[in-house]
Design a protein that fits this description.
The complex is a heterodimer of chains A (about 180) and B (about 210). With about 180 residues, chain A is mainly α. In chain A, about 70% of the residues lie in helices and about 0% in strands. Chain B has about 210 residues and is mostly helical. Chain B has one domain (about 20-210). Classes of the chains: A mainly alpha (about 180), B mainly alpha (about 210). The interface of A and B includes residues 23, 61, 78 and 85 of A.
């Protein structure tokens, strides 16, 4: 049984009776799981679109929830359908597990926030100029050419700088990064 | 739009859902589909010529019981196919009951002393039976697809097959009022073939027409 089942189901039952407050809590709660679920499977823009599409689907199809059945399985069914729909639109073949509601409810974006915090802690160890380069290229996905044009460095200089910075961070983590945990 | 704003909008537009709303929508739509099937049967094929006398015959009841049971058990599956996360395994097992019934009856009739085996299996309309069951089922299949799209099918080929199974059962039920065959072996073979053809058609169409 999924840990959140009882709470979410209560909210859903109240929402089906027209309780907007419970419904808002339910959708906000689900959004955290959905964000993490899609972020691990789609790229950033598509992920947030998929979150919103799923919320709309939950809304328009809410009458199909049968209170005799687990609520988390119902939501997972919809989230999985929207994921497959997204893959299909991009002509990607995919198999998505059928009965893994834990895939959705085992994660929320708080865990991702922790991971992000760890990364920014690590980045803080770099000198500011290098930190910007690493952040642009490795985290924000800016192309090497763009960064080179903006900073006036050559493309190969950008690549080398980023490569060395990552390497030094890696050594940092190996040596004593654990000490500040 | 920001996701938080979306959540605000959706909860501002929340209206209570009436209990049993889905069941009523399903039943109402399916009834309309079956009326369509009846119109096709009466308009293109006609009621069997010996209708009043035949309603008392064993063969007629054999057909009606088999096809109605297929439709009713498929309806349970259909209702679940439109609900994400619903378990379909147990209701799928129920489908074995009508099949078992017609197969047992067919074996009994075939093994009777002096039975005309060929006649019992082939009747006089084996060529047209399955295609006509499929034809009669089409209006019901269309209605079933229409209503299923308004629910939330998440496995489209499976949902399409179930819609086809239901429409096949319902179509065969309606077709029973035209067809004069009554031997269980004939029904077990040709009616079942017509129902399976409708199921296959539903499965093929599912992924294209059940998307929502």
């Amino acid at each position: 049984m999924i840990a959140q089942e009882a709470q979410y189901r209560d909210w859903m039952l109240a929402a089906l009776m027209g309780d907007a407050g419970a419904y808002r809590m339910l959708l906000s709660g689900l959004t955290r799981h959905l964000r993490s679920y899609y972020a691990r499977r789609l790229d950033a823009g598509a992920a947030e679109d998929a979150v919103q599409e799923t919320l709309i689907a939950i809304h328009t199809r809410r009458a199909t929830y049968d209170p005799a059945l687990p609520f988390t399985a119902w939501v997972y069914g919809i989230a999985r359908y929207k994921l497959i729909d997204e893959y299909r639109r991009n002509k990607r073949r995919a198999t998505v597990p059928l009965d893994e509601a834990g895939e959705l409810f085992g994660h929320d974006d708080a865990q991702e926030a922790i991971a992000k915090r760890d990364v920014s802690k690590l980045l803080a160890k770099l000198p500011p100029a290098k930190r910007e380069l690493v952040k642009d290229i490795k985290l924000d996905g800016v192309s090497v050419a763009e960064v080179a044009a903006r900073t006036g460095l050559s493309e190969s200089a950008v690549k080398v700088t980023v490569h060395r910075a990552i390497k030094s961070l890696g050594e940092d983590v190996k040596e004593g990064g654990d000490a500040d945990r | 739009m920001r996701t938080d704003d979306l959540i605000g909008q959706l909860s501002a537009n929340l209206e209570p859902v009436k209990r049993g709303a889905i069941g009523r929508l399903l039943l109402g739509t399916i009834l309309i589909g079956m009326i369509g099937s009846a119109v096709v049967m009466l308009g293109m094929l006609g009621l069997r010529h010996d209708f009043s006398g035949a309603m008392m015959s064993f063969g007629m009841w054999t057909k009606l019981a088999y096809t109605l049971a297929v439709a009713v058990f498929a309806f349970f599956l259909l209702e679940r196919a439109g609900r994400p996360g619903a378990d379909m395994y147990k209701p799928a097992l129920l489908m074995a009951l009508p099949v078992l019934y017609i197969v047992l009856l067919a074996i009994i009739q075939l093994s009777a002393p002096g039975a005309d085996k060929h006649g019992l299996m082939m009747g006089h309309s084996s060529q047209v039976c399955a295609p006509l069951v499929l034809l009669t089922a089409l209006p019901t299949l269309a209605a079933t697809f229409w209503v299923l799209r308004r629910l939330a099918p998440t496995r489209l080929t499976m949902a399409g097959a179930i819609a086809g199974l239901f429409a096949g059962g319902a179509g065969a039920f309606v077709y029973s009022f035209h067809c004069t065959e009554g031997a269980a072996p004939f029904i077990a073979i040709w009616y079942t073939l017509g129902i399976l053809a409708t199921t296959a058609l539903g499965a093929l169409l599912g992924r294209h027409f059940l998307r929502w």
